[in-house]
């Protein structure tokens, strides 16, 4: 378990969001990839932000109420996202997950985005390994 790394559970097939992307395209990417957030990158794939479903919901409500036109991702993204490395132990990341923590982490190697890791991916891997499981079900306290 200790040897399992973020690179073993990360998704590397999801296209990140680019600067100046209209929010409608961001929403489409979130929905089609079934993720709650995506990293925002520059032309060199350096992570410069993160945009979540909640960011989009709020921005779309405000823009439609005030008829301000379509916002772009730069207007709503979080500018200081937490990133992890591919070499980080999954157990270390799992221990840091909690209320108020991100559900999706950009995975960065040499300042470039190489993938994302989600709570769901970590949960699925832990379940597959059988951690805390008895015959396919979580052990119940006696």
Automatic annotation (TrEMBL):
Organism: Marinobacter xestospongiae
Superkingdom of the organism of origin: Bacteria
Residues in the signal sequence: none
Keyword list, A-Z: CBS domain
Boundaries of every CBS domain copy: 10-68, 77-135
UniProt-recorded name of the protein: CBS domain-containing protein
Keyword Transmembrane helix attached: no
Pfam hit, one: CBS
């Amino acid at each position: 378990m200790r040897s399992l790394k973020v690179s073993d559970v990360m998704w590397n097939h999801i296209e990140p969001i680019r600067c100046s992307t209209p929010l409608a395209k961001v929403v489409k990417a979130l929905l089609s990839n079934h993720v709650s957030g995506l990293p925002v990158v520059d032309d060199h794939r350096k992570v410069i932000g993160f945009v979540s479903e909640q960011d989009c919901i709020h921005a779309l409500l405000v823009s439609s109420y005030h008829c301000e036109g379509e916002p772009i991702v730069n207007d709503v993204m979080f500018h200081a996202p937490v990133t992890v490395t591919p070499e980080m132990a999954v157990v270390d990341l799992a221990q840091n997950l909690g209320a108020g923590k991100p559900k999706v982490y950009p995975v960065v190697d040499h300042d470039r985005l190489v993938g994302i890791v989600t709570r769901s991916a970590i949960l699925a891997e832990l379940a597959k390994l059988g951690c805390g499981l008895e015959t396919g079900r979580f052990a119940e306290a006696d």
